[in-house]
Each structure stands twice: as structure tokens, then as C-alpha cells.
Amino acid sequence: MSLSLSRRSALFAGAGAAALPLKAWAQEAARDHSELAAAVDAYVIRCMAAFPDQPALGIALVKDGETILARGYGVKAMDRPERADEHTLFAIASNTKNVTAAALAIMVDEGKVKWDEPVRTYLPGFTLSDPFIGERITVRDTLSHRAGFGLGAGDLLFWPNSDRTRAEVMAAIPHVPIEDQFRARYHYCNLMFVVAGEVLAAVSGMAWEDFVQTRILDRVGMADTVPMATLADPAKSALPHGRLGPPLRYQGEMQRIADSIAEVWNWDSAAAAGGICSTPHDWAKWIAVRLADGKLADGSQLFSEASSREMVRPNIISSSSPGPTAELPGRSIVSTYALGLSVQDYRGERLISHGGGSPGGISATVLLPGRNAGFAIFSNAEESYLLRALRSGIADIVMDKTGFDWIADSQTYLAQATERSLAAAVEIDAKQAAGAAPSLPLSAYAGTWRDPWYGDLVIAPRDGGLWLSFTHNPALQGPLEPYDGETFRTRFPDKREEDAFVTFEIETGQPVRATVKGVSPDIDFSYDYQDLRLTKV
Known about the structure:
Blueprint: H1 5-10, H2 14-19, H3 22-50, E1 56-63, E2 66-74, E3 90-91, H4 97-109, H5 131-136, H6 139-142, H7 166-172, H8 191-204, H9 208-220, E4 241-243, E5 254-256, H10 271-274, E6 277-278, H11 280-291, H12 305-311, E7 316-320, E8 334-337, E9 342-346, E10 349-358, E11 361-368, E12 373-379, H13 384-398, H14 406-433, E13 447-451, E14 455-462, E15 465-470, E16 477-484, E17 487-490, E18 500-507, E19 510-518, E20 533-536
Antiparallel strand pairs: 1-2, 1-12, 3-6, 4-5, 7-8, 8-9, 9-10, 10-11, 11-12, 13-14, 13-20, 14-15, 15-16, 16-17, 17-18, 18-19, 19-20
Helix pairs in contact: 3-13, 4-8, 13-14
């Protein structure tokens, strides 16, 4: 199969292009599209065979404005027979972010928002824990991960599923700590996309989800897509799967972890950062719109070409390296973040992308503008190395740069990561077995412990031990047991969640302050325990 751009471009160059009959060109394009779709389809099947614990995948592939592949693979739930298809809903998580950026781009086109205007222009009184940044942060900053917050800062406001409303999340934001300088470095931050969603609501007069539904999903024709997971019909959904141990989360046997997406992924209060659930059939339409610089199938513009270009203009460097090698052929010289999308070099071309991760699912969207092509991968399990094999492997097929074995390479990385994780689990348990006893009776650690942005954690005596409750996250409740000296660790009965170390600071014979961090080295960054600064009430 040949997908060489040099051959295709020759059809449009000079006399050759003029001499080629339109019908012959159309037949040639159709043949290339058919070959490309078949190659990607075969590769996806190979990947699923190499990672047999994966229940379902959804794949969308667009070329030259045409959906050439939209398909579901596998089953919606590993313990049920229903097959996934092109209309199966998947949680796309942070792939939502480029929809939020596009929604604001529509407002920019209408003159209701300016990218570089301070947020407080649209949300009067808005501030942050660093007032200097609170006064100056712009709409562009909220979409660019450059405000200065640490990785995942404030995510415990809505992860794991929280009882907070969107207004309560916004009220907590001024108290979330900022660890870096303004616009100095890239730190992935869901919290500022919540702010961006509220800017959209303020200038449009519509809640984020209503704007996205009526001004984007309906116009693009994405009839199956829903803006929030609570709207996703479980019967039409690829249900979440994961590994719950032992010994730690992300280890052990694959299992279904919920009866609906929303059971483990209710981000209604943070929908602008990751709420959408979509299908391969629908997301292919979105890819086509992005590749066409906002042009819809009827010829009208969803957003302007100028806004389309602005959304992929880099705003912050996210990483850099010496570039590709034989062992790392896809390594970028520089990766950047624009407005809700990453932009990088890949094998000498521009690649625009975003990923998404939710409990029990991961996903990716990839645009290759130089090839007028794009694709998406939706998954209902936390198999990140499978996603790696698919993302790079499909990109290479589209670019006609096959030859590197991404499947074998990803399996090697998986084996190495698993070995490290199991060794870490042994070390964690060994430290607890050898740990010193607490300096005080267990009852001394009981009480209400308050953080300025999160609120209260309650430690109560129970059955001769201690019980810890995060008051806004129902899943984060369980025994708190001695680990080493003034450090304790949780044992949450809900094994879908990540355990934490709690370390107390003693003054005049009493615990007065405490810090928290995750137990597992593989913990998802959205468990931002490390941002808690607890004092005893």
C-alpha cells in the first residue's frame, strides 16, 4: 500500500494536475482511502490481540474531509455480550478541552470575548490565591495550562466523584495553592478550564453544557454525543474497566469497575474540563470540522478560520528533547500547548493532539493537518500502553512511515513498568512492617481537619482504630492505620480509589497540622492529596 504524499501531490502539480480527469482522481482517492482504512482496521485488531484484556475500543479515521473508518471493537463490558460499534458512547474526558476552546472561539468571533482580556472582565471579583495572578490571568491563560498551578491542583474538588456544585468549585478556587510563577512553565490544570467554562456561561448567557449542545453538537450533527456523563445511557455506553489490585491500583486482573460511566466519572461540576461522552461516528465529524478550520458540512463556519489558526498557535512549551532516535522514532524536539490542544513535531511534521483519562477509560485525538487527516481512539479500560501503541502506530500508517514495531515496544515498556510497580508495592509494605509506632494514642489524632480550599477531613475512632472521611468525596472513606511514626495510611474499601499517607505534625504533645500524599507511585495526578494543608479545628 502506498500513501505517499509526493505521489498524491503530483496529481495537483502543474500540467499533470490539469491533465488528470476528475473521475480518475476520485477513483484514485477512493482507492487510497479504502487501503488506509483497511490498514488501520487491521492494525487495531492486531493491537487488541496483543493486549487481550482490553474490552472495547472505538476508532474514528478521517481523510480529506471524509470519514473512512468509524468502528467499535470488542464488547462494552467484559462480562456481557453486547458488542461495541460506531455508535457506542465512550468517556472522552480531556478531549473535551478543545471543544471548550472552540466554544469560546465562537464568542471571540461574535465579539463577546477577547483571548487576552483578564478573566475578571467577564467574572467580576474573580481572584486566585496569588492576587497578582488573579488580576492578570486571561482567557487564553485558562486554556493554556500556564497559570502557575501545580499538576492537577484542585482536582479533588471533583475527582473522585464529589458532591460539589459548579458554584462551590468556583468558590474554592481562590484558596487553591499556586506553586509556580505566572506563565513560567507548563502544568496541566483542569481547574482553569472550569473557569473558562464559567466565562463562556457569563458571556453567552447559557450554561456550558447548553451552549455546547445547541451551538456545537447540534450544528455539527453529533446526535449521539452528550456534554456530561450523567446524560450517557449505560445501555449505549462502553462501561469502565480497570485493575484494582492487589497489591496496588492499576495492578492485578482487569475487571469492570462500574455499571455506568457516571458512576466513576461524574464531572458535571467540571464539565468544561472533561465532561463529554462521544462515539466514533460523531467524533469523526468533529475531527473533520477541526481539519477544515471550522467549516461545517453545509459550508457554513462553526468558528472562523482565524480562530481555528489561533487555537493551534502554541502558548507554552510543555516539553523538549534532543529529538528522535532509532529507539525513539516518535520523540519530538518540542511539544507545546495551544488552546485546548497540544502541538508538536512528529517525524518531521506537525501533529496536533489531545488525550483524555477517566477512571476506566483513556482516549486520544490526533490531527495531521499536512496530511488532511485525523483520528481518534476511545477505550473503556486503563491500558495506557495499548493507547501508546495505537496512537503512534496509526499515525505512522497515515504518514506512510511504518516499520517501527509500536506493539512490541509498548509491551516492553509495560513489562518494565509493571516490574517497577510491583517492586514499589513490596517496599511500601516492608516499610510499614518495620515502621515505628505513633508517638501518641490513636484518639489524639481524631477530630476535624480543615484545608482552606478542600474543606474538612474527619478522623473518627472506630472499632479500636481510626476512620478517615473526605467529606466531599464519598468514595474516600476508610480505615486510617499506623504506618511509620506520625505517618498513617488509608485502606479505602472502595478499591477503585487511591490510598493516601497522612503525616501529622506534633506541637506541645498534640497533632496540629497534617499533610497528605498518595501511596502508589502510579497514582493518577488528579488525586492531588499533596496540595492539602490540614490544620486541626
